[in-house]
Design brief:
By secondary structure, the protein is mainly α. The protein has one domain. It is 82% helix and 0% strand. It contains six helices and no strands. Helix 4 packs antiparallel against helix 5. The protein is elongated, with a radius of gyration of 24 Å.
């Protein structure tokens, strides 16, 4: 049912409307996430991801040391270190979510602005 309605809407659009719709089309999750690596603030995403990957790597290494420890105190030290690094890596990764949401909002705002501008010109 929705495919038929979507097809009818698509056929009713002019060429300019199609270009606007394609430029402001809703992007998928991976496209939004990869979009954070570009633009003015893309370098921040690269730094966060490099630090996050490094922390995760050290967390895995500490986890192996934790399982290989022979006495309790050494195991506790490696285990706490591994857990803290893994949590910090997760927090860093999740810190990118607000930027993804902001990108979604800005994309939708552009769509609304284009619709208002088109209506004001009388087309």
């Amino acid at each position: 049912m929705m495919n038929k309605i979507d097809r009818m809407i698509e056929e009713a659009l002019s060429e300019e409307d199609r270009a606007i719709a394609e430029a402001t089309a809703e992007r998928g999750w991976f496209a939004l996430a990869l979009g954070t690596f570009r633009g003015k603030l893309g370098w921040i995403t690269w730094v966060v991801m490099i630090v996050q990957t490094t922390m995760f790597g050290f967390a895995v290494w500490c986890g192996f040391r934790f399982y290989g420890a022979t006495d309790v105190l050494t195991a506790v030290k490696w285990g706490i270190t591994a857990a803290v690094l893994a949590l910090m890596a997760t927090v860093l990764k999740l810190s990118l979510m607000p930027q993804i949401q902001a990108d979604r909002i800005l994309l939708e705002l552009r769509r609304v602005e284009l619709m208002i501008a088109k209506r004001d010109t009388g087309q």
